[in-house]
Amino acid sequence: MERIRSIERKEANSEQRRVGDIIFGSRNEDYGGPSAILLHVPELAERFDHLRNYLVREQKLPKPMGQLAQLMTARFWSAQYAWWKRVEPCLAAGIPQDVIDAVRERRRPTFTDHDLEAVYDYVSELYENRRVSDATHARLQAIIGDECLIELVLTVGFYSMLGLVCDAFEPDFPPGVPEPLSDES
User: Structural domains in the chain?
Assistant: First the structure.
């Protein structure tokens, strides 16, 4: 159950509605989830969404790599809502179901795509060690270059922030949608 209630469009003040319509109109969605909670601070919600839009629509990082990093981040934080929102885009980006399942179960996936494996290793090492070895860094840098590597790290940072919002405030799922992550995994 939400710890801070979501702002619904019908109850939003003019600034919350202006920002909410930008956020949810761009996604063609009803108000809900962590962004609807952030509408309590409309200016911050708008800036948060501006960065999200860049990472979703404008970054040069190949989509499957960004999606894998987002999924790993949602799992790292065990952010139920963020995980639920990440699975479908991962599948659409071509990430195999067995990779998604392995990340959910906190197992190392078996990769056929060595570039995705390099992303997995980089993000895993960053989370586990709070830094990345020279070898892991050089491997991914050789694949995607500096600009995309910076975008990858910022993607991990942004989705960590989103994971924390989900964990702290527990946004409600739409009716009939169960929490996707079990406590055991």
Answer: 9-58 (no CATH), 63-169 (1.20.1290.10)
Note the pLDDT of residue 139: 98
**Do residues 81 and 37 touch, judged by C-beta distance below 8 A?**
no
Single out the residue of 31, 29, 33, 41 nearest to residue 11, CA to CA.
Answer: 31
Separation of alpha carbons 26 and 21, rounded Å:
8
Query: pLDDT tens, 151-163?
Result: 999 999 999 999 9
